[in-house]
């Protein structure tokens, strides 16, 4: 279906903001803050809303889980010539360079002990990659150990050009 990505991303982030106040949420004790830097232009994309929401949920859950001190989670949405780019940046543990190429593999988790304490299966990013590739997009990460991580998603984006009718 064709979805307004600005609206969908806002909707998902609002849910994560509400979790701060919800005592039943696993993130309730955390002190994170969400910042949004979105283009004003509405970006329409062809996606499966449920599966795409699952991907963004995993990236947000990771950003919170792997940021012991909370911090600011910066969410960006922008367009380039023919792509939509979304990013989620945290100020958490970061990912060691040697692990960067593996974190999208099934069951791969950095530092087994640390990850086990956090719960989870190590499947989130592998599934995310499958979903994004199915949509013709890409997912990648940029991270510095001890400083934080930024996950990016790009999606193909059809510009709606003004129709060029030949008037004769
Ligand atoms: P699941 O998502 O299945 O509940 P998970 O979060 O461990 O479990 P993935 O989402 O696939 O699995 O992430 C794989 C591993 O990558 C994590 O275990 C963690 O070590 C590392 N990782 C993912 N996101 C971050 C992040 N934002 N900061 C630091 N490390 C991360
Ligand atoms: Mg995860």
From TrEMBL:
Localization, UniProt: Cell membrane
Domain of life assignment: Bacteria
Ranges where the Histidine kinase domain occurs: 1-159
Name used for this protein in its record: histidine kinase
Lineage, opening ranks: Bacteria, Bacillati, Bacillota, Bacilli, Lactobacillales
Location of this fragment in the whole protein: 452 to 619 of 619
């Amino acid at each position: 279906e064709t979805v307004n990505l600005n609206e969908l991303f806002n909707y998902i982030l609002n849910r994560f903001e509400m979790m701060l106040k919800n005592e039943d949420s696993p993130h309730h004790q955390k002190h994170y803050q969400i910042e949004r830097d979105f283009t004003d232009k509405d970006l329409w994309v062809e996606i499966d809303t449920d599966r795409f929401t699952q991907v963004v949920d995993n990236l947000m859950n990771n950003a919170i889980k792997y940021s012991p001190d909370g911090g600011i989670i910066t969410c960006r949405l922008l367009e380039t010539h023919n792509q939509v780019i979304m990013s989620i940046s945290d100020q958490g543990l970061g990912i060691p360079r040697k692990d960067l190429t593996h974190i999208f593999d099934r069951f791969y988790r950095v530092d087994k002990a640390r990850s086990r304490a956090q719960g989870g299966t190590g499947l989130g990013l592998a599934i995310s990659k499958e979903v994004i590739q199915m949509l013709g997009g890409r997912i990648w990460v940029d991270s510095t150990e001890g400083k934080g991580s930024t996950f990016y998603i790009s999606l193909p984006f059809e510009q709606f050009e003004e129709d060029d009718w030949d008037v004769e």
